[in-house]
Every structure is written in C-alpha cells, then in structure tokens.
Amino acid sequence: MVINASNPKILIVDDDPAICQLVSRFLSYNNYQIKTAENAYQGRQLFEQLSPDLVILDVNLPDESGFTLCQEIRHTGTLVLMLTCMTDTNYILEGFAKGADDYLTKPFNLAILKAKITALLNRRQLGNNTLETGKNTLVFDGLSINVETAEVTLNNQVIPLTTLEFELLHFLATHPNKIWERGALIEQVWRENQEIGADRKVDVHIGQIRKKIDDLEGRLIKTVRGRGYMFKFPNHNHQ
C-alpha cells in the first residue's frame, strides 16, 4: 500500500522481532509510516533520521532501559507509547513519571493499540489547533502560561513540561475554582474513556507538574479529598 507523506510517522523500538513485524504490518496497513529498531542505539539513530510523530517503546531493551530513552525522546516533544510485560502498577507509573504519554501491557490487542495511537495523535492535533488560534497568556503571580508557544515560565525561568503536562495544566488553569474528578480529566485532557489505573495516571501527572512549578504544597493545584483536583489562585490575569 502506498503511504502518503502526510501520514503519521511511527518508530517502533522493541527487541522482539515478532512484535515488531506484527505491529509494523498492522500499522502500515492502516496508513502509518513505520520504522523499527531492536535496541536503544538503533532507536536513537532512526529517531534522528525519521523525526517521528510517535514512538512505540519497549521498557526492556537489551542495551539500556526504555525509561532512559523515553526521557530523551520526551524532551523533543514527541509522543511516547510504552510497552511492558510488567503489570505492577508502580512499574507502569514509573513510565508516566519518565514522561510516557500512555502505556500498553503485553500481550495486547492490536485494535486497542490502534485506538491509543489515534487518541494520542488526535490530542496532539487538537492541541496544535488550539495553539494556532490562542492569543492569551495566563499569569498567576510568578507563573506564566503562554498558549501560543505552549511555554510555561516560573519567575521568568522556562519550565520544561511535556505536551500532556502542559495540556493538563492549561486545562485546569482555564477552568479555575472548579473541582475536576479524575475521570473527567481523563476525558477532557487525555480525550479517552476512563480505564483501570486512570486515577493513578492523573495523580502521577499532577505530581510531576507540581514538582516542576514548585507547587508541592498545592497552593495552585489543590487536591480535594475524595473528589479530584482544583486550580485555585485569587489573582490571575489574561494578557
């Protein structure tokens, strides 16, 4: 099948040739441009050559941990969907802490894989459309959220947020003084239905944002016990 150059580019990094072949054929059939790598070293080389829209990354690579490569990739803003054989919640949450946008445990259903990829890419596209039309900068004391550049600064210092962290912070900041349940945030920010482990997924990302914007005490993003989260700050401006 001839793939149009406008089709999303996906890099698969997994040392299992059977998985690489299966996923590659399936996604190619669904009009994605696919490249595969069997280790982190090859993954880095192909990442530079391909500039993919999304990376499907196995946690257990032969030459180094997939978590390490995930952190490097996320600094570029590229989406990362991690694969793991581990079903332990803490292990999966470590992936989110390293910047993963989503995860899938092996063995997995190809239809679910496709649905997750579609959701991630759609969220990215919707985010880009928002950035093209947005004209405001939200300012909360020393915290500034620039919608046009997707940049967050704290006391004039740029804060490196992942795409998902920015979208979550921006959503809460533009809907202040309202309690958002975790399931509602999954639907509004992740743009997918709630699934097992979704509550912890939200908690981990909120925790990462709080660390980065120096809000560990919850001055801006408050935890409402038994309910969810609320962005609350008395003095905010639109510029």
Keywords:
42% helix; WH-like_DNA-bd_sf; 5-stranded antiparallel sheet; 239 residues; 2 domains; Arc Repressor Mutant, subunit A; Rossmann fold; CheY-like_superfamily; 8 helices; globular; phosphorelay response regulator activity; alpha/beta; disordered N terminus
Question: How would you explain this protein's 3D organization?
Answer:
The protein is an alpha/beta fold. The chain folds into 2 domains: 9-128, Response regulator (Rossmann fold); 135-238, Winged helix-like DNA-binding domain superfamily/Winged helix DNA-binding domain (Arc Repressor Mutant, subunit A, Orthogonal Bundle), CATH 1.10.10. It has 8 helices and 12 strands. A 5-stranded parallel sheet has the order 2-1-3-4-5, with helices on both faces. The protein has a 5-stranded antiparallel sheet with strand order 9-8-7-6-12, with helices on one face. Strand 8 (151-154) and strand 9 form a beta hairpin. Helix 6 packs across helix 7 (182-190) and helix 7 packs across helix 8 (198-212). The protein is globular, with a radius of gyration of 18 Å. Residues 1-5 and 127-135 have low confidence and may be disordered. This is Two component transcriptional regulator, winged helix family. GO terms for molecular function: phosphorelay response regulator activity; transcription cis-regulatory region binding.
